[in-house]
Structure to design on (370 residues):
């Protein structure tokens, strides 16, 4: 049996007619940019999240950079970010001109260790980029309290967490700005690069709207330096179609996660994702498990046709891109251990019961638990 980590072909059939019909309309009008599908998607995504503004952009990396620039983050500022994030989080801080301050990871949430977070706030700290890793909401009450106490801007990287909730509120809507990647592998996914940035603040919305079009508030009149980061009509067509089934497919992911927990939680020494308390609703962009025998397990599953992946095998403070620009050393043993032990197993909604049973039977066989 062959079970890839992710199969983008599955699930497309149900939206194929709608998407191809939308494509035909786009090509008939040749309104490729700033068209009706972009405006409709921005409205629909804002309504889904319960925010005033949503702006499509080229990718999640652009969303993060626009967020920091809109908040005035720049030279001399520090930005806190957990060390287990994607390189885009570091890149946004770097290109904004600020310095990243890496946080230890809480292995029970995959979010930042809040004790470490408090320790690393200095007079130069201007913002926190908060990553809802793998689709698990962070502990927002405590984080919001810390940000308020110290006057920090909160930028949420919710690229793994489309539709995730904390106490009935969608993640990405707690901070001043929320950022989403909608790339091909995300829960809400286009078939190319795509992103969206959201806010409730009128002044920030003005900046975010025009950063992505070279600061041109009026055609050929650039009011401030920006860049090119537009979401095209074709990707907007796909995102609109995908949004209709997002909640249903997230619920399927939660059911698969429950199945994995029921069948894997008795394996000694195997780290599993946290079980949601009643006030959280995770969306399981990735289902990551952890073991010191990661490489052996990956090879074992590969031999059985089961795909796996690493998210992420090098923590941000160990990336060459960071070491050659800032070069500071950090003591983050939990982040480093998780980078060496975590692996993702398949969790897309279209997995069959037979495939799920095969996955858990294989993992149990590796640990001698069958």
């Amino acid at each position: 049996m062959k079970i890839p980590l992710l199969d983008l072909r599955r699930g497309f059939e149900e939206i194929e007619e709608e998407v191809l019909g939308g494509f035909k309309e786009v090509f008939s009008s040749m309104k490729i940019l700033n068209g009706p599908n972009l405006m409709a998607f921005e409205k629909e995504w804002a309504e889904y999240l319960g925010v005033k503004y949503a702006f499509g952009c080229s990718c999640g990396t652009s969303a993060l950079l626009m967020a920091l620039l809109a908040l005035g983050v720049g030279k001399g500022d520090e930005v806190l970010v957990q060390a287990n994030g994607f390189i885009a989080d570091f890149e946004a801080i770097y290109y904004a001109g600020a310095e990243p301050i890496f946080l230890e990871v809480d292995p029970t949430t995959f979010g930042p260790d809040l004790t470490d977070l408090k320790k690393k706030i200095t007079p130069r700290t201007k913002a926190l980029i908060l990553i809802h890793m793998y689709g698990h909401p962070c502990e927002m009450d405590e984080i919001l309290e810390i940000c308020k106490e110290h006057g920090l801007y909160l930028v949420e990287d919710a690229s793994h967490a489309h539709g995730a909730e904390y106490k009935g509120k969608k993640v990405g809507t707690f901070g001043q700005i929320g950022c989403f990647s909608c790339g091909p592998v995300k829960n809400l996914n286009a078939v190319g690069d795509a992103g969206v940035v959201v806010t409730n603040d009128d002044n920030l919305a003005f900046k975010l709207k025009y950063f992505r079009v070279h600061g041109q508030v009026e055609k050929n009149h650039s009011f401030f330096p920006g860049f090119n980061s537009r979401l095209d009509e074709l990707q907007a067509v796909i995102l609109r179609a995908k949004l209709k089934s997002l909640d249903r497919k997230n619920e399927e992911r939660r059911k698969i996660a429950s199945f994995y927990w029921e069948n894997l939680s008795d394996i000694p020494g195997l780290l599993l994702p946290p079980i949601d308390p009643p006030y959280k609703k995770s969306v399981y962009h990735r289902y990551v498990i952890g073991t010191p025998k990661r490489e052996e397990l990956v090879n074992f599953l590969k031999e059985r046709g089961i795909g796996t992946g690493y998210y992420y095998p090098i923590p941000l403070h160990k990336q060459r891109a960071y070491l050659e620009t800032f070069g500071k050393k950090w003591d983050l043993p939990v982040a480093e251990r998780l980078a060496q032990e975590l692996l993702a197993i398949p969790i897309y909604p279209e997995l069959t019961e037979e495939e799920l049973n095969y996955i858990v039977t294989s993992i149990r066989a590796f640990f001698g638990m069958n």
In short: The domain at 246-366 is CATH 3.90.1150.10 (Aspartate Aminotransferase, domain 1).
